Amino acid sequence: MSEINQQGSNPLQKYFRQPKLYISLPSKGKFYPNGAYENTESGELPVFSMTAKDELTFKTPDALLNGQATVDVIQSCIPNIKNAWAMPSIDLDACLIAIRMATYGEEMGITIKKPVTGEESEMNVDLRGIMDHFSDAEYVDSITVGDMIVGLRPLTYKEFTQNA
After folding, report:
1. What is the mean pLDDT of residues 109-116?
2. What is the distance between the alpha carbons of residues 59 and 68, in angstroms, rounded to a whole number?
3. CA–CA distance from 39 to each of 16, 27, 87 (Å)?
4. How far is CA 150 from CA 36, 86, 143, 146, 153, in A?
5. For residues 81 and 74, is the Cβ–Cβ distance under 8 A?
6. Nearest in space to 78 (alpha carbons), one of 98, 107, 63
7. pTM (2 d.p.)
8. Is the C-alpha dihedral spanning 131, 86, 55, 76 positive or negative?
9. % helix, strand, coil for the chain, step of 5
10. Nearest-angstrom CA–CA distance, 110 and 120
11. Residues 6+ apart with CB under 8 A from 98
12. DSSP, res 67
């Protein structure tokens, strides 16, 4: 036992949460301030499923209204994002969908109401297709207007929440 501890290996390591999937962020980590994001060599971030604590966090109304629940769950499930308040808003949907996929699977059931008849219908949405849409997106960070170049950046999640 002391030999295992001397090597720095934890005997409970196999029981720790394991990443369920890996994602590339739409921003590619470009718009994060120093210390808010830790990139990996492959550029793909590990995504863990939600814990019971994360599930309860999403059920706290005050935390949902001010955005703290979203920040806590993102930082818990995607530990490479160190400060989710500073994350660009273009990464938000991709992160939340990835967490949903890691926790509940690649399909999400939704109920739709038909406009004319009012009849309700169930259908499944393939979240992989939506994630593919985000991975193919490219953010333009400058535009040219005449002789002037205008630099653009996405809102941070904090700015996005304050504006909402």
Report:
1. 89
2. 12
3. 21, 12, 13
4. 25, 22, 5, 10, 10
5. yes
6. 98
7. 0.82
8. positive
9. 40, 20, 40
10. 10
11. 21, 23, 47, 78, 131
12. S
pLDDT(78) > 90: yes
- What whole-number distance in Å separates Cα of residue 50 and Cα of residue 56? 10
Q: What is the mean pLDDT of the chain?
A: 88
Q: Which amino acid is at 81?
A: I
Contacts of 72 (CB under 8 A, 6+ apart): 54, 57, 63
Q: Which amino acid is at 138?
A: E
Q: Reduce the DSSP state of residue 95 to 3 states and report it.
A: helix
- Rounded Cα distance, 117 and 47, in Å: 41
Residue with tokens 């720790």, as numbered in its chain:
16
Beta strands in 48-152 (DSSP E): 107-113, 120-126, 142-145, 148-151
- Count of Cβ atoms closer than 10 Å to residue 157 Cβ: 23
Neighbours of 33 (CB within 10 A): 10
Residue ranges of E strands in 9-160: 21-23, 45-47, 107-113, 120-126, 142-145, 148-151
Phi, psi of 50 (to 5 degrees): -70, 145
